[in-house]
Amino acid sequence: MTAKNREGWADALRTFAILAVVLLHCAALNIGGELPGDTRFWVINLLDGGVRWGVPVFVMLSGAFLLDPEKEMTTRQWLARVGRIALLTVFWGAVYALYDARAAHMGLEWLLEGLISLVTCRLHYHLWFLPMLLGLYLLLPLFRALVKGAERKTLWLAVGLWAAALALDKLFAFAPTFPGQGWFEALDPGHLLGYGGYLILGYLLRTCEIHPKRASCLYAAGALGLLVTWAGTYLASVAAGHFAVGLYSYFVPNVSVTAAAVFLLVRQLELGKAPVWGQLSALSLGVFVLHPLFIDLTRALSFPPDAWNLALSIPLRFLLVTALSLAAAWLLRKLPGVGKLLS
Question: Binning pLDDT at 50, 70 and 90, where does residue 2 land?
Fold first, then answer.
């Protein structure tokens, strides 16, 4: 968007979302090896579980603007967006495939291992987001047609059905004998389970005029969602004797409602009016693709040491990785001709 009609809150929200993703990956380094219920487990659970809304918010931001029927999207513009995400997926998939294969092979075998990883979609742990986003972008014309042709009540109903399908899917995963599972499977709701619901939800939350009481209810539900994430993960992990990841999923109600609450809160507070938010937002993709390299660097240097109090070491690693990623993303965007295509 141009400077005149730019919605600054979206820049702030995108910045918060990428910070949440970096913190998530910094905190998640240790949780699998910690004893459920001890202090170290709780520190990681609070930090990691507290930012699970970051990825859904990214998808919601895409839907908030790309599904707007008042903003024209020609076939050429659509194909350009698809092409850019495809380029990002292949380029960074190749970079990290070679990076991951560096220690196992040398010379031609190293290149061959990297090529096999890319062709078979053995992507680095964080790059799953790019092909997922590419899939959504390929379907943008269908989503835009739905938003343009449907009443808002219909769109809210569609989001409600999506949320209900997600909740039932998790319910039957936890309780396979719960009544109704047969009908649920017979309806084959797989087409309702995915990130498309977040696209539509983002558009609705950006364009809705929500009553203050309803907004307060959503904020309360979002806070409750956080508590469920923390407490539920603790209880499930203690019962299982190891870290239980179920309530960290991006498709469980506690994470979805927290993401929606964060989205609406930042929008209503109208944060991000200062130019710095736009500058940080422009670096968010670069930070996303680069930050695992700097996480690995801090681990290779053993700083901060994992033996430290995690309440100190994880935030310190987060600050170091964020600062280095921002600097690297800024430099990458300065590359003539290709910098902005790759970051």
Answer: very low
Given a cut of 80, whether residue 189 has pLDDT beyond it is no
Alpha-helical runs (H) found in the chain: 8-27, 39-49, 54-66, 75-101, 107-119, 129-138, 140-149, 152-174, 181-187, 196-207, 212-240, 253-269, 275-282, 284-300, 310-333
Q: Given pLDDT bands bounded at 50, 70 and 90, which one contains residue 103?
A: low
Amino acid (1-letter code) at residue 6:
R
Q: What is the chain's mean pLDDT, rounded?
A: 89
Residue with tokens 């949320």: 163
The structure's pTM equals 0.91
Q: Rounded distance, CA 339 to CA 260, Å? A: 32
Q: Where are the domains of the chain?
A: 10-341
Instruction: Please spell the DSSP secondary structure of 161-199, one letter per residue.
Output: HHHHHHHHHHHHHH-TTSTTHHHHHHH-GGGGSSTHHHH
Query: Using a CB cutoff of 8 Å and minimum separation of 24, what contacts does 273-276 make?
Result: 273/8, 274/8
Q: CA 234, CA 243: separation in Å to the nearest integer?
A: 8
Contact criterion met (CB below 8 Å) for 25 and 126: yes
Tally Cβ neighbours within 10 Å of residue 113.
18
Query: Does a cis peptide bond (omega within 30 degrees of 0) precede residue 131?
Result: no
What are the pLDDT digits (tens) for 117-127?
777 778 889 99
Whether 53 contacts 194, CB under 8 Å? no
